[in-house]
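User: Okay, second chain of the day. Same drill as before: sequence in, structure tokens out.
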Amino acid sequence: MDLNLSDEQRLLRESAERFVAESYDADHRRKMANDPSGFSPAVWKQFAELGWLALPIAEEFDGLGGGAVEIGILMEAFGRGLVSEPYVATVVLGASLIDKCGSTAQKQARLPKVADGSLKLAFAHSERTARFDLAKVATVAHKTAQGWRLAGSKIAVLEGHAADEIIVSAHVHDHQGPSGRIGLFLVAKTPSLAISDYERLGGGRACNIELSGVELPEDALLGDGHDALPAIEWAIDRAMAALGAEAVGIMQTLLDTTLEYTKIRKQFGRPLSANQVIRHRLADMAMQVDEARSMALRAALKVDSPPIERARAASGAKAKIGKCARFVGEQSIQLHGGMGVTEELEVGAYFKRLVAFDTLFGGSAHHYSRHAQLGRTA
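Assistant: Same drill. Structure tokens below.
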């Protein structure tokens, strides 16, 4: 297997790293942290002009037809700059679900708008009692004469406050009662949709949603009504692979920053990096970053494999990268000494994003358990 990047992939990596280095500095991140939207519409427009929003969308819907590896290259660059734009929510989750489940008319109406930046999406699936069990959905969609009526609540909806349309999962109740199927519904913002948003640890925003008798038309159901659980599992595994690549970018930045700091910081007249113990700790950090990068790439390469193989790769990557991320973050904080927890340095901001990564879609313990369970199933 040739794991070397193609010429197009190398160009994508270089352009993304250059854009992030030029556009995302400490001042920009502080400005976005204080902005109610949590991201810059001007930067989102630049994403569209660069073709990044169209990257995984099929060419027939004005996309570029890229895959998970290209998404990973882009997300690693985003991690280096702590990018807060709703890329995962709109492109990796929202557009993927529409492409996977939607009818031709639904795809034609939305995917070109995602590609040109005029439509932002979010995916509302997590619930308070689910505990990362994707099959556990209490929200209900009742069939009515006019269409559908949704009732329930969702939590931790990534960038839901900024979305033009939210994809909501719900158990379908037709005229015969509970069908046992999970459906996906396209919900526009209405007064009956109560949204309470909040700042996420490490940048970006999320929200909780209360659905109280939300009335939807017949065509709000995504696709033909088949059980959407396999598609949800597929989309979440894709998102975990993308977030793993972002975590690798964050860890690489922490490693580079810490290495530079230990060369400059002197103690007893010698640089910190002159001490053998410090060198060993830096070497351990570098090993963890390389291991995490390999796991993220493996998860990206497996996104279109059979379900159990794909899910094991995604859970294995999430568990291992989460463990590596905590180690690299803690070592970086410790090697910076007291400066590591101050606002003057951005080490703390990067560490917060890594902590947020470890808890998103389930922590390391959850995914070690899921990986083992899938292994027994296989």
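The chain has eleven helices and nine strands.

User: Thanks, on to the next one.
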